[in-house]
């Protein structure tokens, strides 16, 4: 039986921190479904389709990564994919409380799917999509924070919105 994990997120946009978790997770799981979810509490800069396209572009060298989107409960998506695990990245202790709540609720919904937390590489522990967007908005250098394709997409977005 295949060892499948789902790595969910809004990925608006994907950063090197996200990629760190996806790449390292791809060495542990046979298949990782990167699931782009629409977080109703956030106002995204990129459409879901744009985010999926960017993730596919920057993960095309990882053969066991599949990028999809889903409307609905993450646990339902995980069951559809026959996933045994949900892979989540942690940057700092401050992430833990929120992640513990989500994990506890997922366990109530389906206790057969485990959540695996992976600490991000220390060099990305401060990194968030929100920070990247703020820096890009004011034309700051984000080349060490996101892949080149994402940097170009961000620059284009902010030029279009002027």
UniProtKB/TrEMBL annotation:
GO terms of molecular function: pantetheine-phosphate adenylyltransferase activity
Q: In the record, which residues are listed under signal peptide?
A: none
User: Its Enzyme Commission number?
Assistant: 2.7.7.3
Outline the extent of the Cytidyltransferase-like domain. 6-134
Q: Where does the record place the site Transition state stabilizer?
A: 18
Cofactor(s) required, per the database record: Mg(2+)
Which InterPro entries does this UniProt record tie to the protein?
Cyt_trans-like, PPAT, Rossmann-like_a/b/a_fold
Q: What are the alphabetically sorted keywords of the record?
A: ATP-binding, Coenzyme A biosynthesis, Cytoplasm, Magnesium, Nucleotide-binding, Nucleotidyltransferase, Transferase
Q: In which pathway does it act?
A: Cofactor biosynthesis; coenzyme A biosynthesis; CoA from (R)-pantothenate: step 4/5
Reactions this protein catalyses = (R)-4'-phosphopantetheine + ATP + H(+) = 3'-dephospho-CoA + diphosphate
Residues annotated as binding ATP are: 10-11, 18, 89-91, 99, 124-130
* Catalytic class of the enzyme: transferase
Q: Where does substrate bind?
A: 10, 42, 74, 88
Q: What is its main location?
A: cytoplasm
Q: Where in the cell is the protein located?
A: Cytoplasm
Q: How does it assemble?
A: Homohexamer.
Function according to Swiss-Prot or TrEMBL: Reversibly transfers an adenylyl group from ATP to 4'-phosphopantetheine, yielding dephospho-CoA (dPCoA) and pyrophosphate.
Similarity annotation: Belongs to the bacterial CoaD family.
| NCBIfam families given in the database record | coaD_prev_kdtB, cyt_tran_rel
- Xref: HAMAP family: PPAT_bact
* Stated name of the protein: Phosphopantetheine adenylyltransferase
Q: Which organism is it from?
A: Metabacillus malikii
Name the encoding gene, please: coaD
């Amino acid at each position: 039986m295949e060892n499948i994990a789902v790595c969910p997120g809004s990925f608006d946009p994907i950063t090197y921190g996200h990629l760190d978790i996806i790449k390292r997770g791809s060495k542990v799981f046979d298949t990782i479904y990167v699931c782009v979810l629409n977080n109703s509490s956030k106002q995204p800069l990129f459409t879901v389709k744009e985010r999926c396209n960017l993730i596919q572009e920057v993960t095309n060298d990882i053969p066991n990564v599949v990028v999809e989107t889903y409307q609905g409960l993450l646990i339902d998506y995980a069951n559809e994919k026959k996933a045994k695990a949900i892979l989540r990245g942690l940057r700092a202790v401050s992430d833990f409380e929120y992640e513990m709540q989500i994990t506890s609720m997922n366990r109530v919904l389906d206790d057969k799917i485990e959540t695996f937390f992976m600490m991000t590489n220390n060099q990305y522990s401060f990194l968030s999509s929100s920070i990247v967007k703020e820096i890009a908005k004011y034309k700051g250098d984000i080349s060490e924070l996101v892949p080149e394709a994402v940097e170009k997409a961000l620059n284009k977005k902010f030029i279009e919105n002027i």
